[in-house]
Amino acid sequence: MLIARNLVRSIDGKSIWSGLTLKLEEGERLALRGPSGSGKTLLMRSLVGLDALDEGEITYRGTPLPSWHLPEYRRLVRYIPQDAAFVSGKVSDSINLFFTFRANRDLKPDPDRILFLLKMLDLPESFLDKTA
Questions:
Q1: What is the pLDDT of residue 128?
Q2: Cβ(42)–Cβ(8) under 8 Å?
Q3: How would you classify residue 39: left for phi > 0, otherwise alpha for psi between -120 and 50, otherwise beta?
Q4: Helices (H), strands (E): how many in the chain?
Q5: DSSP designation for 7
């Protein structure tokens, strides 16, 4: 479970959010909606340890964020940016790139899982060969 308590963040003296509290159970996903500049991206980046907070605490599975080894934490808690970056080449190249990162070197792509996800998205297997 991920818990964020009393998060506070300001930029150039302007409060972005304060007293922000949320709780996500295992397997839940969070999508944020709001006007440009309201702090959505900043919050998501803060939840994965990419941006500092002014105040507040984030814990995952009962362990405070500063106590986690961040590569391991980021394997468990994901942030998917609005504008995803792809490598040049095929869609499969972008998928396989994930498994080349040092933090993921003990992981291997699961072809059956990839095909299952394609089916869920109503995409043909040939989608993997399209230019990303």
A1: 93
A2: no
A3: left
A4: 4, 4
A5: E
Write the CB contacts of 12 (distance below 8 Å, at least 6 apart in sequence).
Answer: none
Q: Is the pLDDT of residue 46 over 90?
A: yes
Helix (H) / strand (E) containing 43:
helix 40-47
Greatest distance between any 2 Cα atoms in the chain: 51
Residue-level pLDDT at 36: 85
> Are 46 and 7 contacting, i.e. CB atoms less than 8 angstroms apart?
yes
Which helix (H) or strand (E) segment holds residue 8: the answer is strand 2-11
Tell me what pLDDT residue 29 has. 81
Non-local CB neighbours of 54 within 8 Å, separated by 6+ positions: 8, 9, 10
Against a cut of 0.70, is the pTM above it? no
Asked if 72 and 103 count as a contact pair (C-beta separation under 8 A), the reply is yes
Long-range interactions of 109-116: CB distance < 8 A, separation 24+: none
Q: Would you list the DSSP string of 116-127?
A: HHHHHTT--GGG
